[in-house]
Amino acid sequence: MAYITENVFDGDNDIDVMGQLLYYDSSDEPYAEVIVFNENGSILFESDVENSNAWLLNSNTVNSSVKASLVNTGSGAKMILDVYYFGEESYSFDVYNLPGSVPSYIQDRNMPSISGNQLRVYPVPADDFVNMEYNLSENQQSGVIEIVDAEGKTLQKIPVNSNKGSLRMPVSKYPQGVYYYSLKTKRGITKNRKNYF
């Protein structure tokens, strides 16, 4: 379980539970699904496990905490999921509008990363550039570093084509604010990293 709430996913006062399911099929391929259900057992939301893997964002990071999958924004409460689409072989931060608001006391239960990928971003805060050091899990040779803003909008996707490496990226073209980084491969996603520039 990642979140236990009421009045966030629907308008009633029943308890709602949001969780991350991680499992492997008979070919040892990973599957990740996000599900929200009501205390009466009815499913309020279920990610499309047939066509994608979906992960909750979490706040267990090396250099800072990040916004979680449930956030209040200027345009209402949002659920943000990190999704890999099988047929398109692409990643996306999918943002869903929620009818309620996220209470200030709600806590991310630090869902673990199943990928084994590592990403380090520095300096924090950044002025003109950021350094990104990455290490892909096992025998992975390619992935994507994705940069999103505080509202979940993807700003840049940077392909990586080696198991280990580093990049230096200019950030002066972006307005000052909070940005999140994640490293994704077919095996999963890193815990997200937060930076200010």
Structural key phrases:
0% helix; 197 residues; Immunoglobulin-like; flat; four-stranded antiparallel β-sheet; 16 strands; five-stranded antiparallel β-sheet; mainly beta
Can you walk me through this structure?
With 197 residues, the chain is mainly β. It has 2 domains: 3-97, no CATH class; 118-196, Immunoglobulin-like, CATH 2.60.40. The protein is built from no helices and 16 strands. The chain has strands at residues 3-5, 16-24, 30-38, 43-46, 52-56, 70-73, 76-85, 90-97, 118-122, 129-135, 143-149, 154-160, 164-170, 178-185, 188-189, 193-196. Strands 11, 12, 14, 15 and 16 form a 5-stranded antiparallel beta sheet that branches. Strands 1-2-3-4 form a 4-stranded antiparallel beta sheet, with no helix packed on it. Strands 5, 6, 7 and 8 form a 4-stranded antiparallel beta sheet that branches. A hairpin with a 4-residue loop joins strand 7 and strand 8 (90-97). Residues 59-66 and 107-114 have low confidence and may be disordered.
Secondary structure layout plus pairing:
Elements: E1 3-5, E2 16-24, E3 30-38, E4 43-46, E5 52-56, E6 70-73, E7 76-85, E8 90-97, E9 118-122, E10 129-135, E11 143-149, E12 154-160, E13 164-170, E14 178-185, E15 188-189, E16 193-196
Antiparallel strand pairs: 1-2, 2-3, 3-4, 5-7, 6-7, 7-8, 9-10, 10-13, 11-12, 11-14, 14-15, 14-16
In short:
The protein has about 200 residues and is mainly β. The chain contains no helices and 16 strands.
Distance between termini? 33 Å
Largest sheet: 5 strands, antiparallel
Please, how many helices? 0
Identify the quaternary structure here: single chain
Category by helix and strand content: mainly beta
Number of strands: 16
Mean pLDDT: 77
Portion of residues within helices: under 10%
Strand content range: over 45%
What is the ordering of alpha helices and beta strands?
EEEEEEEEEEEEEEEE
- How many independent structural domains? 2
Shape: flat
Low-confidence stretches: 59-66, 107-114
Using only C-alpha atoms, the radius of gyration works out to: 17 Å
